[in-house]
Amino acid sequence: MTMIAEQDRALAAGQAVTMAGALNQALSDALSEDDTVLVFGEDVATLGGVFRITSGLAAAFGETRVFDTPLAESGIVGTAIGMAMNGLRPVVEMQFDAFAYPAFEQITSHLAKLRNRTRGRVELPIVIRIPYGGGIGGVEHHCDSSEAYYTHTPGLRVVTPGTPADAYVLLRQAIKSPDPVIFLEPKRRYWSSEVVSAHAGSPLDRAVVRRPGSDVTLISYGGALATTLEAAEAAEADDRSVEVIDLRSLAPFDDETVTASVKRTGRAVVVHEASRFCGYGAEVAARVSEQCFHYLEAPVLRVAGFDIPYPPPSLEEYHLPSVDRILAAIDRLQWRETAPVVQVAG
Amino acid sequence: MATSPMTPECLLPGPTPVALLDAAGQVIPGDDLDMPGDQVLLALYRMMVLGRRFDTQATALTKQGRLAVYPSARGQEACQVGAVAALRPQDWLFPTYRDSMALVARGIDPVEVLTLLRGDWHSGYDPYDKRVAPQCTPLATNTLHAVGMARAAVIKGEDMVALVMLGDGATSEGDTHAALNFAAVWKAPVVFLVQNNGYAISVPLAKQTAAPSLAHKGIGYGVPGTLVDGNDAAAVYAVVRRAVAAAAAGAGPALIEALTYRVEAHTNADDATRYRSREEVESWLARDPVTRLREHLGRRGLLSDAVAAALEAQAEAEAAALRQRMNSDARHDPADLFRYVYAQRTPELRRQQHELAAELADLEEARTHHDDDR
Question: If we measure between CA atoms, which residue out of A154, A181, A34 comes closest to residue A94?
């Protein structure tokens, strides 16, 4: 209760709110506005979730609408599907990225397909919230970047906020969406804070330009966004004007915003912490190459995690994309002063 | 063993399957279960005759290439018809791919029932029309959908029970475990009907479980388990009806194991002689559910030869009508591929739809030119 009340005040007063607080506020507002919204999962009621995102909601809205479930992720998503078939809007929590895998069959075989299977007769407005990614010193199975598993599944929307303000806006929009949404929360940004508006923000399926620039476009999302923005600032020192795009919606993909930027800058780097091979950046690089080939001055590069299982806490700093690694990638974009001089005969 | 409602023993099935009629259609005395009324028995018989003829026709349609595949439920008529007859209009049914007869009994158009197996679309009927979920092909996943549906009914204050059908093999899947557990913890009005037909494709029950029976699994979740003769339509109806009434009254979920037999192979593409003997099949044919109820009704003078003949004629007419309707090729619109993936097509799906349309237009143009040249 206190947490919600404090956030209410903070939002109204235009004070900074953490991403965790913004998410909590979004859930609270959705529960207030729409009686069909339910929040459930493991430890979400009494405890308020292991990250406290649902703190105070059970007390405020009662355990019929905010409740703890038995410990089975497939059970959580499978029952959410049945509830949505009966007109409710479940917002469920998977405790950690890798703990969502038991629900994979329900997500891919049913959640993603039921609308299609029934020619639109069955609509499943379900949000699956998943704290994802590393950077918090978590032990194994607590730090996966599993977005590509979901973005490769037609029928799902996959959304990830990179900022507290977007966390609020995107979660509200996800809950209102008639499509199922995989809502990936970058857990290492839960405690970042900024001023959050309940009444502003871009639509659910649009990318946004977080920072304008003219020399190169950095394309990122979720947990890697803050690092990418930091790298963009640092690049200014080398007189590189860097544009940063926050994808927000990983599926569907906003080609328009991305290609408009790359056609202007002629150079692009995709930054994410998930493994590189068949990672989300591969799709971004392919799309940019297909649609901007004649505008590109250099191949699209990827700064990503290594192709390894997520490392233990004491080694994760070597794995996560860093400012230096992003700057190094920018340097490799065949700038004129460093590009090899080619003599053209005749 | 006498049990009080508070002891765990009351969650266990009895030592023998609940039955009201023996294989010859004679009434088995005893038990606290009421024999369904005459009209119900006649209705069950009628639905079983129509259901069996539908099933035979569907198998025949695979041989004519009109169905891509058909998993027959021949031999399981009593389970499918008995369960559906016990449901009220406001209840929901969550069937599997083998429960086509149950769908027909629930009143869904047989052509729409076969849409999936014909390969025209994944589900042909509107689930909300008769409150029947799309037939579920992955095993046991539908158990959780039923629990969610039932839990939502409680939250919304609706008088509704969800009945989910699953097979013996599906009880080994993790989702069955989760569903029984969730249903019990939530006291959700769900009836789990396991049609134990002896085989999961080729794997017999002995390789599936070491439990004394599948109904015994209920006690581990706090769910009462009942074992019923699945070839006795009267008993299946009575047991399911009792469970539906109890669930609707707030007693929570029930697990029912109906002992039956899949007379045909897993599907038309399967060869059952590789894993079971002719003698075994024949021993089950002697316990045929349709014959059993006919014998009973005949003995009691409830089914005259004229009524029986009229029913057979109706079954033939319905099969002929189905044959006729399945004989024409359904028209397919390739644009449908893109229409229902999301509430609104994404820009990418619009592009892909145009790609396909352009490809088809090119083909059509090439064909027209080819014809002109001839």
Answer: A181
Tens of pLDDT, residues B152-209: 999 999 999 999 999 999 999 999 999 999 999 999 999 999 999 999 999 999 999 9
Whether A307 and A235 map to the same domain: the answer is yes
pLDDT above 90 covers a percentage of chain B that reads 91
> Counting Cβ atoms within 10 Å, is residue B276 exposed (0-12), middle (13-18) or buried (19+)?
middle
For residue range A312-326, list pLDDT tens digits in order.
999 999 999 999 999
Kindly give the pairing relationship between strand A16-18 and strand A193-195: antiparallel
Q: Are residues B355 and B214 in the same domain?
A: no
Annotated catalytic, A110? Answer: no
Q: Which of the residues A83, A176, A205, A259 would you substitute to probe the B interface, choosing the one with the greatest number of B C-beta atoms within 10 Å?
A: A83
Whether the CB-CB separation of A274 and A283 falls below 8 Å is answered with no
Among B161, B340, B350, B351, most A C-beta atoms within 10 A, so best to mutate, is B340
What single string gives the DSSP state of each residue in B320-372? Answer: HHHHHHHTSPPP--TTHHHHTSSSS--HHHHHHHHHHHHHHHHHHHHHHHHHH
pLDDT tens column, A181-213: 999 999 999 999 999 988 778 889 999 999 999
A247: its two tokens: 């994808």
What is the phi-psi region of residue B201: left when phi exceeds 0, alpha when psi lies from -120 to 50, beta otherwise?
A: left
Q: What is the pLDDT of residues B115-141, one digit of tens each?
A: 999 989 999 999 999 999 999 999 999
SS3 B189: coil
CB-based contact (8 Å) between B37 and chain A?
Answer: no
Q: Are residues A212 and A257 in the same domain?
A: yes
Partners of residue A72 in chain B, C-beta under 8 Å: 174, 177-178, 181-182
Q: What is the domain extent for residue B357?
A: 336-373
B56 contacts B319 by C-beta, under 8 angstroms: yes
Contact call for A121 and B149, based on CB within 8 A: no
Q: Does A74 touch chain B (CB under 8 A)?
A: yes
Is B5 within the bounds of a domain? no
ipTM > 0.90 (yes/no)? yes
**Both structure tokens of B346:** 């994404």
User: pLDDT digits over A135-175, tens only?
Assistant: 999 999 999 999 999 999 999 999 999 999 999 999 999 99
Average pLDDT for residues B301-321, to the nearest whole number?
Answer: 96
Given a contact cutoff of 8 angstroms between Cβ atoms, the answer to whether A95 and A43 are in contact is yes
pLDDT recorded at residue A13:
80
Cβ atoms < 10 Å from Cβ of B349: 17
Residue A334 pLDDT greater than 60, yes or no: yes
For the whole model, what pTM was predicted?
0.96
Active site residue B262: yes
Please tell me the predicted confidence (pLDDT) of residue A12. 76
- Of B326, B348, B365, the one marking the end of a domain is B326
Q: Cβ of A102 under 8 Å from any chain B Cβ? A: yes
A244 in the same domain as A172 = no
Q: What is the pLDDT of residue B32?
A: 79
Residues of A in contact with B144 (CB under 8 A): 74-75, 77-79, 81-82, 106
Q: Are residues B173 and B70 in the same domain?
A: yes
A86 in B contact zone (CB under 8 Å)? yes
Contact A121 B339 (CB under 8 A): no
Residues B113 and B76 reside in one and the same domain: yes
- The verdict on a CB contact (< 8 Å) between B145 and A78 is yes
